[in-house]
Every structure is written in structure tokens, then in C-alpha cells.
Amino acid sequence: MVLVALAVLVVVAVSVAVGFHAGPHGVLAAGALGAIATVAFIVAVEVAPARSRPALEWVLLGATAAVSASAIVAGAVTLPALRRRQPAVGSNRLLGADGVAVSDLTPAGTVRVLGETWTAESVSGRLPAGAAIHVMEVDGLRLRVWSEAAVGAGGPGATADEEQG
Q: Which of 37, 66, 84 delimits the end of a domain?
């Protein structure tokens, strides 16, 4: 019976690990599987012929119940948070994102944001390639970006001639 209890604990632990990879629903399912396995184990122990029950069986049963209860709690806590989260798709994920200028922005050029290359327009003046940028607005397939590394138009490093024209 100790081997059965150990096998149940291993199955529940693997189910919980897979459940965490699959998300909150997987964790809840793993917890439910563990709860069912715990109840089945208790019934099997009580129905079995009377004999001395090793303490290890009860320790393994307690561990299985604890892992199952933890999985159910973790799944129940994370599900509501998952429902409240807005999907990070479309322009929503770009607003406020940081990136880097791939080419000089004079004021238009190319930037890299969230691993993607975009056409961009600087709202803070001319930007050199390699400058850190921040996405302020998304206009179709063009980003409007801002940076502290602006050259000219009053930015750091601007000369009087660049500011005049």
C-alpha cells in the first residue's frame, strides 16, 4: 500500500507541475485529481482488511492532500486575476513600451519595440540611431516616439543654429 500511496503522490505532483505550465485551469484540474486520489486512497485503506497501517502511508496521504489543496487554492486565486487582465494585443501592448532607434529619426525612421521593427516619427526632434525611445502614440502602422536623446529642436546637444532652422 505504501507503493500505491507514493505513486499517487508522484502522479499528483506531476499533474500540478503540468497544470502550472497549462495555466490556472490546469492547476485546478490537478488539484481536483489529487483530491479524488486522496479520497480514493482513504477508502481503499479503510476497506482493506484490518492490519497495522505504516505511518509512511499516512505521511504520503497527508502530502498528497497538501499538494492537492495547494493546487486548488493557487488555481482559485489566479483565475480571477486572469479574467481581469486585458489581452496584450494590437496597439495596446505598444503604448508606453520602450525600444531603440534602429536608424536616425529625422524625424521619421525605424525603431525596434518589443522585438518588432516599426516605422516611427520622433515627437522630440532628431534622434540618432541607438537612442532609447518610448512609444507615445500608435497611428496605424506608424509609432510616435519620444526620447531624451533628441538632437535639435531644443533637445540635449542642440546648437543655436539647429534650433533656428
A: 84
